[in-house]
Design goal:
heterodimer; A: about 400 residues; alpha+beta; 5 strands; elongated; disordered N terminus; B: about 220 residues; alpha/beta; 11 helices
């Protein structure tokens, strides 16, 4: 079940933190002898907001963990209610309030840290590279949303500690020893909660940095090979200066290699449908020098037997186009989340009338349509004065 | 919208002198080249002065790239139509330039005929969607709306828009696409425009997911 987070739910940690701070302030101002309903509100509001924020966070982290998150949320609210009823006697109410506020603050700090960790991790930096950065207003709003809960959490914790310290000093009567105990509990929560989140963040960054260094070194090696290859080809081209067809073919081969490297595809080889299709296109280009086959892929799929059949059929279609059409050939692989796999091979040649294809060329049609149908898919060949397009199709999820 | 002259005027911005000269001679007689520039500052100055129908802009320009030129020009001449030109087919270049306001993007391997057509289309304010851009769009908007989508309407393609994008990615022209889908060519253009708008508005989450997916795949 996909969770679509509505915008106001994203504000939960901020709201929880701010209400915790508000509660703390109110508690400070009120002092002992607060009416019961006010105390319930002061305790209930931050606790339930923290609970809701945890539920929301749970849903974001584990799509199917809604039940876990719900349990945590109910626990949080339950703990809050229990603490309140246990400490409802006058003197201990302030202690209870302080503890709850402190815990809410600690939880908010932990949530904020994991939030910030997520933002610094996967996805945001490539985005900024793609779009040249967010607008100034969005950037400062994002900054605020990142820092505000953290700050509010810290303030809540400090205020809670201050109240507890106040109680420990015994100046209000009540139970100094109880206050000391609660302070220790709060400090323990602080170490466990935000401390654990912080540790997670540090580990993640360390791992990311190591992966980045590895990737950089792999890139350098690949680049060195590539430079070598390009230099060799350029030398060959200069030597073939009186053979334009060969020059064009060499140039096209090297262009393909360079584009593959730029797109980061050098080490992939043939383990996926997209990779196999590109390899097939390269082979056909080499078999018919002067042909240019432009392959684009949207999505990808594993190279299971049906996908292999599709690749072979596509290869036949490409060879056919290269042999007869002598124009640019355009190939598209469209895999929509693995449900339907479609491949299109198109050329803008003179076209042909399928019905009047002579017998000796029937083999080509069988190689395409027959192969696809045998593998459980379908093929369609459309040809006219504006060109020919072969559509290969598999419905249903792979495997 | 200004009425374009029968022979469209262009300013060519590219840091490769040989390429500029080549394009100039290719376009001779069919498109009027009213200015050239090789870097960001010159590009902005020449474009604002010459006020061409179309700005032919290389994506990779030293000193800030095509995006810097786009921002500089559109700030003072918001009606300027821009056709981005590039030798690379890297997604980040394409998307960045389209989001910055380019009306279309073509590769440098394009034929003269197709380049003239593209210039004319952009001069008329119609977006030019190359195969590659259509394929990028399909991939960027693939799958369901993401969990944190704040506006699913903007962050996914309608089925019809997806059909149009797929046909363009297959290499069909707008006219052929219209015939296949049995709709008018104007309808195709409006679908393409709406996709362009979505590309310019789509959320960071969507594109970030797409980018990191590409990173994982690579």
């Amino acid at each position: 079940m996909s969770a679509v987070a509505r915008p106001h739910l994203r504000r939960l940690p901020t709201a929880a933190a701010l209400s915790a701070v508000g509660s703390a302030g109110f508690a400070l101002a009120q002092g002992p002898g607060t009416p019961a309903w006010a105390s319930l509100a002061i305790v209930g509001v931050p606790v339930s907001l923290v609970g809701a924020a945890l539920v929301q966070r749970g849903r974001e982290l584990h799509r199917r963990g809604a039940t876990h998150a719900l349990v945590i949320g109910v626990l949080a609210i339950g703990v809050g209610a229990a603490s309140w009823s246990l400490l409802a006697q006058a003197g201990l109410l302030r202690l209870g309030l302080a503890l709850v506020v402190g815990v809410a603050g600690a939880a908010t700090i932990a949530l904020s840290i994991t939030r910030i960790a997520d933002e610094l991790d996967g996805g945001r930096t490539p985005w900024q590279a793609l779009a040249g950065g967010p607008t100034a207003a969005a950037a400062s709003r994002a900054q605020f949303e990142r820092v505000a809960p953290l700050l509010a959490g810290v303030i809540a914790v400090l205020v809670a500690l201050r109240i507890l310290a106040f109680e420990v000093s015994g100046s209000v009567g009540g139970s100094p020893r109880g206050a000391l105990l609660l302070m220790l509990v709060l400090l323990a929560v602080l170490i466990v909660g935000p401390g654990w989140a912080l540790r997670g963040l540090i580990n993640r960054r360390r791992r990311a940095r190591r992966a980045g260094l590895q990737r950089a070194s792999d890139d350098r090696i690949a680049a060195a090979h590539l430079h070598d290859s390009v230099l060799q080809t350029l030398a060959l081209i200069q030597r073939s200066a009186d053979d334009p067809a060969r020059m064009a073919q060499l140039a096209r081969q090297e262009e393909r290699g360079l584009r593959e490297w730029l797109a980061g595809r050098t080490n992939r080889g043939q383990c996926s449908l997209a990779g196999a299709l590109r390899s097939a296109a390269a082979e056909v280009e080499d078999e018919f020098p002067g042909t240019v086959i432009d392959v684009l892929t949207v999505g990808d799929a594993p190279l299971d037997p049906p996908a292999d059949a599709m690749c072979q059929a596509a290869r036949e279609a490409m060879r056919n186009a290269a042999r007869h059409a002598r124009t640019r050939i355009e190939v598209l692989l469209d895999v929509d989340r693995g449900d339907t796999r479609l491949a299109f091979v198109r050329d803008v040649g003179a076209g042909f009338d399928l019905a009047s294809v002579p017998n000796e060329r029937r083999g080509v049609r069988d190689a395409i349509i027959g192969r696809m149908e045998q593998a459980g898919g379908a093929a369609m060949i459309e040809s006219g004065p504006e060109g020919t397009e072969v559509t290969l199709r598999f419905d249903g999820a792979p495997r | 919208m200004t009425v374009p002259s029968p022979v469209p005027t262009v300013v060519i911005v590219d840091d490769h002198g040989l390429f500029r000269a080549g394009v100039r001679s290719e376009l001779a007689g069919r498109v009027h080249v009213v200015g050239e520039a090789a870097d960001v500052d010159a590009a902005i100055a020449v474009t604002l002065k010459a006020a061409p129908d179309v700005l032919l802009l290389d994506v990779h320009l030293p000193g800030g790239g095509g995006v810097a030129v786009l921002e500089g020009v559109l700030a003072r001449r918001p009606q300027q139509q821009v056709l981005a030109l590039t030798v690379s087919d890297a997604p980040q270049d394409v998307v960045a330039v389209v989001r910055a306001g380019a009306r279309g993007y073509v590769e440098k391997t394009i034929t003269t005929e197709a380049l003239v057509d593209a210039i004319r289309s952009v001069a008329d304010g119609e977006p030019v969607f190359s195969r590659r851009l259509a394929a990028f769009v399909l991939e960027a908007f693939s799958g369901r709306a993401p969990a944190a989508a704040s506006d699913p309407e903007v962050e996914s393609l309608t089925p019809r828009e997806r059909e149009v994008m797929q046909l363009i990615a297959r290499g069909h022209s707008y006219k052929q696409t219209a015939l296949r889908l049995e709709i008018g060519p104007r309808t195709v253009e409006s679908h393409v425009s709406s996709v362009l708008r979505k590309l310019q508005l789509s959320s960071r989450h969507e594109l970030a997911q797409w980018a990191s997916r590409r990173g994982l795949v690579d």
